[in-house]
Amino acid sequence: MASNLTVKFVTNTTKDSRNFLFNRLTNIGFEIKKEDIFSSLAAARSLLIKRKWKSLLLLSPEAMEDFEGLGCEKDESPNAVVIGLAPTKFHYDCLNDAFRCLKNGAKLIAIHAGKYYKREDGLALGPGCFVKGLEYSAQCKAEVIGKPSREFFLTALGDIPPDEAVMIGDDVTDDVHGAQNAGIRGFLVQTGKYQSGDELKITPPPKAVFPSVVEAIESILEEVRNGSDTSSYTFTSEEK
Fold this sequence. Notes:
This protein is α/β, with parallel strands linked by helices. It has 7 helices and 12 strands.
């Protein structure tokens, strides 16, 4: 991209490690560094390391490589239950183990609490309903790490002021509303998870709505050409 814009890919995907995401993005033509990818998985890993917690990990096998050394052995009592998108773990026995840990004092960490995501065969349940179920049964409150957390967006920005950034995303709640609550302009694209009328579901509404990422990026570049002080935009990859 022929501009001085800083580009960062922010994602709630909890199925794939950062290394997997990096390879996928470079294979489709993006020239990026691994440091340009900021995921809720990475944020959760940093949190566990900072707090020196051992956890019961409800994660997909692909995501586990980012959490090496942070899980509990069978005879250990976890400090936390960490839940991401892990369809193979969302069955009674595994969820009941998580429930028992929470009742024994473990903290509930939701890497994100998305309602649904897009698969090749259509929309599918996200981890949010399982997080809410554990909250209800264990009478606890989850700490949500990823989007739409305000802290997630601000950490991804680093030293870039929020009012100089734009978030492009297909999820009106997690991407656009979350970003706007952090002082970042939210551009909604009508692809991926987008459903007709999504732009009417949040207040304030998205700063702009575009048919796809292409038009959103063109709009940002036009601002730059016209002398805008926009210095960064963030792009969210869909959870697949």
